[in-house]
Every structure is written in C-alpha cells, then in structure tokens.
Write a structure and sequence with these properties.
The complex is a heterotrimer of chains A (about 550), B (about 100) and C (about 110). Chain B has about 100 residues and is mainly α. Chain B contains 3 helices and no strands. In chain B, helix 1 runs antiparallel to helix 2, helix 1 packs parallel to helix 3 and helix 2 packs antiparallel against helix 3. Chain B is elongated, with a radius of gyration of 16 Å. Chain C is mainly α and about 110 residues long. Chain C has 4 helices and no strands. Chain C has one domain. The chains are: A alpha+beta (about 550), B mainly alpha (about 100), C mainly alpha (about 110).
Chain lengths: ~550, ~100, ~110
C-alpha cells in the first residue's frame, strides 16, 4: 500500500480520514451551529429574547454588580485541588473586572477574577461569572444553559472534555488530519476540475456517494482548509506551549520590557485607591476612536488591579465591521481617569494573526457571510458523511462474503455520528423546553440536566444504530438510516411546536415582529424536518431496489 | 496488480513517526524560528505567533512525508534528529539573548 | 438596501459564471444542450465569460465590504454557486440553456 506516493496518500486519506472523520463531523456540525450560537441562546433562554443592547453605564449599573459577584460552587469545587488549606467563604481581593458584548448579544457577560489566598501556584485566580440584562442589571438565573454559546460552541472546540485539555488535543489532532485529508484527497482526485460539477445520483450508490464526497470537498476546499488551519492557530498556545516552557526566559524578558513600554503595571502596588468615573473614560475612548475615523461600540471593558493605586481601565472597540475581533484598546489610570496609553496599530504579524483568528471566530456583522459559513460547515459534514457511506458501500459485499463485521461497525458508527448526532442536538432543544423551570431540590442544575439529556439521547441513538445495522453484515442497506431520518423529521417539528406552546412565540408572531433569532432557529429546524423526510423516502426506494437486486442475484446464483 | 502487504508493526511505526516525530520536528521548528525572529529584533509574541503559524504547515508536511517517503528509517532520522537539533539550537540562541 | 442588492447581484453573477464554466465542458454541454454543436470557439468564449463573471462578482463584493471581508464573501459565494450549478445540472440541466441563449435551439 505504500509502494508509491499516490498509494501512500490514498491509504492515509482512507484510514486516518475514517477514524478522525467521526470526530471531525461533530466538530464541523457544532461549528456550523456555533455561527448562530447567540441566537440559539435566545431560543433556549426565553427571558433573553429582546434586542441586542450597547454596553450600559459602568458607574451606575455595572459597578454594584461586580462588587456583589462571588464564584459559584462549580468554580469553588474546581479550585479545591489548587489550594493548601480551605477556601474562604468570601473572596475579597478582585484582580480584574470584565464585561463583554457583541452586536448579537441581548445580554451582557460579566466576570470577576479574584486572588486566591494560599494558592499552590502564584497568580492563581478564581472566577465569578454572571449574565445580566443590560437594561436594568437583573441577573439571569445561574442554572440556565446557553445551549449555543455555552454548550454547542465548547462541544465544537473541545468536545466538552476538559480533563487535562484532552478534548482540545483530540479536536486539534482531528483538525490536522482534516488538512491531511484535504491534501491527500487532492493528490488522489485526478479529475479535480473536470469533475467539479459532477453529481450522478442515478448511478450506483458507490459512484454517487463518491461524486458527492468529491463535490463537497472540492468546491469549499479553501473554506475547509482555512477553518481547520485557523482553528489550530487559535489554540497554538495549548498545542505548542513554548512561551511557558522552553522559551520562558525570553517570555519573561518580554513581559518586563512590555510593562515598561506600555506603562501598564504588572502587579498591584498594595495601596488602596478609589475608582474614578469609568463612564467618562469610555466616552473619552469613543471620542478618540471617532477622531481617528473609526467610531465604534465598546466590545470589551476591563478593570485590572481593582481598588489599587496601580489599577487601570481598558476599553476595547468591538470589531463588528472588520475581521479582527476587538481592538483599538485605550487604557486609563483607574483612580484618576488619566490616559495611560492608546494601543498603537498592530504590527504586520499582529495583523496576520488577528485576520486568521478573526476569520474563524466571526464577530463581524455580516449576515450573508454568516449563512455562507453555515453552508461551508454543512458541506464539510456532507463530505465526511459521504466518505463514510462510500467506505461502507465499497466493502460491505466483500465483508459479507468474508464473514467480517468491519463494514457493519463503520456503518453503525456512521449512523451514530450523522443522524444520531442530529437527534441528540434536537433532543437537547426539546429537553430545554420540557424540563421544569427550577429543578427539584437534590437534582442537578437545569443546565446540567439539559446536557445529560443530550448525551443520553445520543447514547440511545447509538444503541439503536448498532442494533439496526445488522443487515450490513449480509451486504444490505441498514434500516437504521431510514428510521433515524424519520426520528429527525418528527423531533425537528416537535421542537418548534414546543417553543410555541411553552413561550407563545410561534412563527407567525416571531416573523411578524421581525424577531429573526428565534424565527430563524424554528425555520431551520422545520426545513431540516423536510429534508429528513425526503431522505427517508429516498431510502425506502433504495431498500426496494436493494431487495430486488438481491433476489436477482440469488436467482443468478441458483441458475 | 500485485498487492504488497505491509506488517502492522510497519504501519504503527509510520503512524508514530508521523505523529510523535512530526510533533518533535514541529516543536523544534517553532522554538528555533521564534528565537531567530527575536534575535532579528521582532517582538516576542509576534515571533511566537509567526513561528506557530508556519509551524502547523510544517507539521502537515512532516506528517505527509512520514507516509510518502519510502525509507521509514530516514523519516525517523530526519524528524527526531532534526527536531532535537533545532530544539537545542533554540536554547543555545536563547541563552545568548536573555 | 443597496448593499443587499449588490450582494444579491454578486451571488447571481457568480452562479452565471460557474454555469458558463460548466457549459464549457463537453459532458455538461450535452446534459444541457443535447447534440447541439460545441465548437472550440464557443468553449473559449464560455470560459472567458465565466472568468469575467467571477471577476465582476468580486468587484461587487468589494463595493460592499472592506477588502478582507469581501474576499471571504466572494470565496464562499463561488463555493455556493458551484454546488447550485452542480445540482441544477443533475436535476434541471435544461434550465441552464438560458446562459447560452444566443447559440440556437438545443438538439435532443
């Protein structure tokens, strides 16, 4: 199999593509969903279904909230292993306060980093998190799950496997294998341009699956390559943590130089000081941006070394009109409001890095581009799924003769990660509407329950997949595919109906009010139901063809 | 077409060379590249970012060559040896800079 | 409003461009036009039209957004257009005849 370059690349594409494909389809699908993560948040937390708001007043609204915030039990539990001794009931030394918003967020995310006394490692911080309504400061209950930005999105980049960053490493390796798959695919696919528009569904399943695999892989090749590549660049610090290991001396040297150059103190002075009007500082920052011809909204506001003489306030501009995320940071002395520093324009490398990360993380305002990103992500999913189907189709008859279960195993895993994954995603949306608003005492938080439902439904789908792919071992089409397509068709209608029943927001109302975040999600699910139903119908026809072919084959064999 | 079966050990060795050898080679390229760029006057974080960006493309190339190059021994030699050399060179360069 | 119209135009022009590229290939010409003649001069014209359309599409994108965003929009539009043309060729090939309206009737 390694006799020549093309065969080696083909082997690599087949086997590493197959194994990592099961991870990649999850990453691609939930990545596509994450494009509209904040819209999914609004669907899943009806209390947040209002219009996006600008950053509210720090002095009047945010400051009392920051002063009130304390880390919640999950953060405390995670910190216990990192301290020598007990954790205090109340943390009192805040190292940083931060508020973050984008043009798509109705609610505001706040965080407070507290110093941890008796910590094993220096500079250890514990974080308090809260989400508030920016119009009046009321907090969202802590036990809500932001199904989009709080679940689908972390699932996309880490499979929610936090232990020792294992999930990040698996996704990272899968991303590298995506790049390998794209290059090896191009090496294998001789007729790249000639077959660019070729899709022949009337030929054998094997041929049409390969056509679709090639089509979806090639037309969005720049997209697939860039997203896998920029994903790796974003987490480069995890995969190659050079600055904190081998190159730590250079890193430390830089930190000292940086602190001197920017005038932003690295440590507390240990002397208490008041906080001047932050609203005035924000206004000044916005005035300076406008003076440079870059008027804009505040994307990120932070206060470091809170309450100390060395404290400083940083105001960053939201990157809604460009690829870069946030920028044009302006820093003020917290106790007086005096300007400390205006961030200079980024260096060439800084600009390249900002472009690459911003391209992936999409904080820009551009609805067409967002939908095109969803298209790209779904094309990637189709590419991977048709890869699985081609693999099985090519081998199942041969495996049946050899009494091997290989093709069956792959088909079962394919059902699990294609239709099974969709069923799980719909499952959490439905659980979100059906679970009681407050869980009874002794039960896990509502947000945690929703996640358990997701994994539980996926496990059930997997069990069904393994059970109902038995015919593949005989070289036939598995009924699991059609059955799960029908399940998707049903669930994808149930979810919007439940939205209507439990919140009163039915499509006529949401479209009538122009409330597209919720209308869009409902429409997306209903469209999916339609597609799933069409697929189920096609599969029924295929079963008939398959059965006919087998009868004919049996007759030929007997003759 | 005559099929040549390859032993499981050979496949495992190629995979290990691609993953582990590739990682070692890439680490070396990143630390050495970053140190060189800092020595040339670039800001540390910029150097780290640029070296990492190029590094992933190097990892991709190393991975493909671990399967594309005929002689497996050569693959191991270049990836591990090259990685070790560049890593050592980076530390040497760093000691001159700090 | 103008921006939305220009982006819509960019998408349509892109689709036409990919359609012209497809029609420059024998196998797809036959799907759309049957046995109608497919001379080399026409093939060349179609390729030029395709390239021109993609270029116009890019210009339209650049008129709406900053360069970095416009290029991304354009690349994704090309991908979407390619898929749309591929599916049209599979299921409604004859609809693409409109792209070569000057070349006379199809021959089945």
């Amino acid at each position: 199999m390694f006799q020549n370059f093309r065969l080696s690349m083909a082997w690599l594409h087949t086997w590493f593509g197959l194994v990592l494909g099961f991870v990649l389809i999850v990453v691609f699908f939930f990545g596509a969903m994450s494009v509209f993560d904040r819209e999914i948040d609004r669907w899943s937390i009806p209390a947040s279904r209002f219009e996006p708001q600008p950053m509210p007043s720090f002095d009047k609204l945010l400051r009392p909230i920051f002063e009130d915030m304390q880390p919640l039990e999950p953060a405390r539990a995670a910190m216990r292993d990192h301290v020598n001794g007990p954790l205090p009931d109340k943390f009192t030394v805040p190292s940083s306060w931060g508020a973050y918003t984008t043009h798509r967020d109705p609610v505001l995310s706040l965080f407070v980093g507290y110093e941890v006394p008796n910590a094993k490692l220096p500079e250890t911080n514990i974080f308090a998190l809260r989400t508030v309504d920016p119009r009046n400061g009321t907090a969202l209950p802590d036990d809500r799950l932001k199904v989009g930005s709080g679940f689908f999105y972390p699932l996309h980049y880490s499979l929610t496997l936090e232990w020792k960053n294992l999930g990040y490493w698996i996704v990272g390796f899968a991303a590298l294998m995506m790049l390998v798959g794209l290059v090896t695919g191009v090496v294998m696919h001789r007729k790249l341009f000639r077959e660019l528009f070729t899709f022949r569904p009337n030929k054998s399943t094997q041929r049409s699956m390969l056509d679709m695999h090639n089509l979806t892989g090639v037309v969005a090749l720049p997209f697939h390559f860039f997203f896998a590549f920029t994903g790796l660049v974003i987490f480069a610090g995890i995969y190659f943590p050079v600055a904190h290991t081998q190159l730590e001396p250079l890193h430390e040297q830089h930190e000292v130089i940086d602190a001197q150059k920017t005038g932003l103190p690295h440590d507390r002075a240990g002397v208490a000081a008041p906080i001047a009007s932050v609203d005035a500082m924000v206004a000044e920052a916005q005035r300076r941006w406008a003076a440079k011809g870059m008027a804009g909204d505040v994307g990120f506001l932070s206060l470091v070394h809170v309450g100390d003489r060395n404290g400083y306030v940083s105001v960053y501009r939201a990157g809604t009109d460009r690829i870069a995320l946030t920028g044009e940071g302006i820093h003020f002395k917290a106790s007086t409001g005096e300007l400390l520093r205006e961030d200079p324009p980024p260096t060439v490398v800084g600009r390249i890095n900002e472009f690459l990360t911003g391209l992936h993380l999409q904080h820009f305002r551009h609805w067409l581009l967002r939908w095109l990103y969803v298209l790209g992500g779904l094309l990637g999913c189709v590419c991977i799924a048709t890869g699985f189907l081609f693999f099985v189709e090519k081998r199942k008859r041969q495996h049946a003769k050899q009494h091997s279960n290989g093709a069956r195993l792959v088909d079962a895993l394919a059902v699990t990660t294609v239709t099974g994954m969709l069923i799980a995603a719909l499952g959490i949306m439905i659980a979100n509407r059906l679970l009681p608003d407050v869980m009874p005492a002794g039960w896990p938080w509502r947000g945690d329950m929703e996640q358990y439902c997701f994994w539980g439904v996926w496990a059930l789908a997997m069990a069904h997949a393994f059970w109902r792919t038995a015919p593949v071992a005989e070289g036939h089409l598995a009924p699991a595919w059609r059955e799960q397509c029908l399940a998707i068709a049903v669930l994808a209608v149930v979810a919007p109906v439940l939205n209507w029943i439990t919140t009163g927001d039915h499509l006529l109302r949401t479209i009538g009010n122009g409330y597209w975040p919720v209308a869009g999600i409902d429409l997306f699910m209903l469209t999916s139901a339609g597609i799933a139903l069409l697929a189920a119908r096609k599969l029924k026809q295929r079963v008939a063809v398959d059965a006919h072919a087998n009868v004919t084959r049996a007759e030929v064999n007997h003759a | 077409m005559a099929t040549v079966t390859v032993s499981r050990l050979h496949i495992a060795s190629r995979a290990a060379a691609a993953i582990l050898g590739g990682y070692a080679f890439t680490w070396g390229a990143i630390v050495f590249g970053a140190a060189l760029l800092v020595a040339a006057g670039m800001d540390f974080h910029d150097a780290e970012h640029l070296a990492s960006i190029v590094g992933f493309l190097i990892f991709l190339t190393a991975f493909l060559s671990a399967f594309g190059v005929r002689q497996l021994q050569r693959v191991w030699l270049v990836l591990l040896g090259g990685g070790a050399l560049m890593t050592a060179a980076a530390s040497l360069l760093q000691s001159q800079l700090v | 409003m103008l921006d939305s119209l220009m982006l819509l135009a960019a998408l349509l022009v892109c689709a036409a461009g990919m359609g012209w590229f497809a029609l420059s290939m024998d196998v797809h010409w036959e799907q759309v036009r049957g046995k109608a003649p497919h001379p080399r001069a026409l093939v060349k014209t179609l390729r030029v039209l395709g390239a021109a359309a993609l270029f116009v599409s890019l210009v339209l994108c650049l008129a709406v957004d900053s360069a970095s965003m416009a290029v991304l929009v354009w690349l994704m539009a090309v991908a979407g257009a390619a898929v749309a043309i591929a599916f049209t060729l599979t299921w409604r090939a004859r609809a693409l005849s409109v792209l070569v309206f000057w070349a006379g009737p199809a021959r089945r």
